[in-house]
Predict the 3D structure of the following.
Amino acid sequence: MSDYHLEGFFAKFRGVIGRYPEPGDRYLFPFDKVVRVPVHMLGVRKPLQVEWWARGELVERRIMPAWWGTHSERADLVIESAPEAA
């Protein structure tokens, strides 16, 4: 398993667009504090498992469909991975 930490505005905005995670890989998006974090699937060609974490506790886990769909939760960490990794 590999963790990829995405820091900075543009890296977080791009997310996994153009670089889909392999099974077992996770893309981590840390934030300085708990804020509402929206996730969109526009441009993402395969479904993703998305987890929103706040203060070390899981807030929400969703399988987001490819190309469409949005969801947001309050979190200080978002993790995106291939659904097969669940």
Remarks:
- Residues 9-14 form the longest helix (6 residues).
- The chain is about 5% helix and 50% strand.
- The radius of gyration is 12 Å.
- The mean pLDDT is 85.
